[in-house]
Amino acid sequence: MDSFEINKIVAAVLMVALLLIGIGKISKVIFYVEKPETPGYSVEVEQVADSSSSTDTVTEEKVDIAALMSLGDAQSGEKIFKKCAACHSIVKGGKNKIGPALYNVVGRQVGGVDDYKYSKALAGYEKDWTFEELNGFLLKPSKWIKGTKMAYAGLRKEKDRASIIKYLNQNSDNPLPLP
After folding, report:
1. CATH tag for 65-170 (out of 1.10.3470.10, 3.90.1210.10, 1.10.760.10, 3.40.228.10)
2. Distance between CA 81 and CA 74 in Å, rounded?
3. Tell me: the pLDDT tens digits for 160-175?
4. pLDDT tens-digit profile of 74-128?
5. DSSP secondary structure letter of residue 178
6. Which of 147, 146, 157, 175 is nearest to 59 (CA)?
7. For the chain, which residues make up each domain, given as ranges?
8. What is d(CA 30, CA 26) in angstroms, rounded to the nearest whole number?
């Protein structure tokens, strides 16, 4: 190859490079877009002040507990309780497991088992396990009593919660009358 052909190849490569740079500059002039002063979108979020401490309950929704309790039955509750049996015992005189023994739980004070070490949230809760309290707690324990050690997701179905509560109430020395 002689030097003239090499010069033509180099000139062609340079010409293509200059042409691409020129087209880029011209397109920026033709398609000019003015950039905004502040990039992106501003999303305004309403701040809600949380005046409750970590151990307070979530705002309780009013639930017709009598109607809810009419949905469940203790036999279904016994079957559903098998999920709970890994951590809780339900027999009279039963030992505490990972969770406290649940015999006589309905009507008992929250955190009322003497030989069980409760979380600070449950120990300082100062309410009794009523039908309403159990319903709220079984729906989502960590949301009902913030700071509880109970790492259970909860029971979504009202019928399941009512059945468990009836089963727990039945397993007591003095079952409370149903609402």
Report:
1. 1.10.760.10
2. 10
3. 999 999 999 999 998 8
4. 899 999 999 899 999 999 888 999 999 999 999 999 988 888 899 898 888 889 9
5. P
6. 146
7. 1-32, 65-170
8. 6
| CA dist., res. 25 & res. 13, Å (int) | 19
Query: Pick from 124, 97, 96, 99: which is nearest to 110 by CA?
Result: 124
Output the CA torsion 82→85→90→91 (10° steps): 100
C-alpha to C-alpha distance for 11 and 100, rounded to whole angstroms: 87
Q: Find the length of the chain.
A: 179
Q: Which residues of 44-80 are buried (b: 16+ CB within 10 A; e: fewer)?
A: eeeeeeeeeeebebeeeeeeebeebbeebebebbbeb
